[in-house]
Amino acid sequence: MRTALLISAAIASLSLMACSQKTEDHAGAAADQAGAATASAAQDTAANANAAAANTAAATDKAADSTAAAADKAAQNTSDAVGAAERKTDAAADAAAKTH
Question: What ranges does the record list as Low complexity composition bias (predicted)?
Answer without folding.
Answer: 28-81
